[in-house]
Amino acid sequence: MSAEEAEPTPPAEPTDDPCFTESSEDAALDQAFDYLNTKFCQPAIWFDSFFKDDRTEDDARAGTIIRWYNDFSYYEKEGFKYRANLNARLNLPGVNERLKFIFDSTGEDDPFSFLKGPDDKSERDIGLRYDWYAKGRVSFNIKANLKPKLEARWRYTYPISESTTTRLTQKIYQEKRVTGESTEFDIEHAFNQEYLLRWTAAASFENDLDIWELGTSLNLYQYISNTQAINYRASIYGVDEPYHYISNANIGLTYRQNFAREWLFFQITPEYNWSKEVDSERLNQAIITFTIEILFQNI
Prior knowledge:
Elements: H1 3-6, H2 28-39, H3 42-50, E1 64-75, E2 79-91, E3 99-104, E4 125-135, E5 138-145, E6 149-159, E7 164-175, E8 178-190, E9 195-206, E10 211-225, E11 228-239, E12 245-258, E13 264-275, E14 283-298
Antiparallel strand pairs: 1-2, 1-14, 2-3, 3-4, 4-5, 5-6, 6-7, 7-8, 8-9, 9-10, 10-11, 11-12, 12-13, 13-14
């Protein structure tokens, strides 16, 4: 027997495959991530991980993620704007890994986060989240923050086929004297390993203002390489009070690239935005944003 036959080499990592993942731990949450990655529309896992969208892997992975990024934007009619953001999800040492410390200055947990611009003012969300259940298609968690606010979130993911997946997310929360709920529905289809299409619809209601907020977005993700991807998107948002009208519409794309270090990213986002407040004229303008992001993660 030759030396090559006696010592078989391990299979090479598929560096050109956007779906390649391998958990290093055998914990239930990591196994759940592997299950999702294998069964539920694999390209979605890669795109959401690369663009740091937590909807597919937030329930499945335990660990620490800290994102610090800086947006430099030029608005056609408003000039230059700058915004720094910090997003963190931390496991507390010596505590059950299901319990996480959450810090969010970006409003990413908002069901309408897909409409947020670089200059949108979002309240800081600081609190604790307990991932009560995360197995297979279903997850449930409870979050409490300093506002004070108590929120319960249930999510169900259903694969229609190997390339098409649906996801329903329901939230109910109490913030001081305000009771609210939000519903999000996603359907995504992977055409192949390079293109993923996702349609999202969201609705939200709070009893203090008695107003329904409604929004929808369409995203097409394009895989270029393990360090490059593009997200083409269009979105629209409206309310039903004081009258039914479209408050915001947006079309644009984001080019994202990992460079120099595995924890360093940049993004370029050209877009066109139509916005209107209740007592103001509609504002239509082109926007371009350059983002530098530092990502720390231990998953």
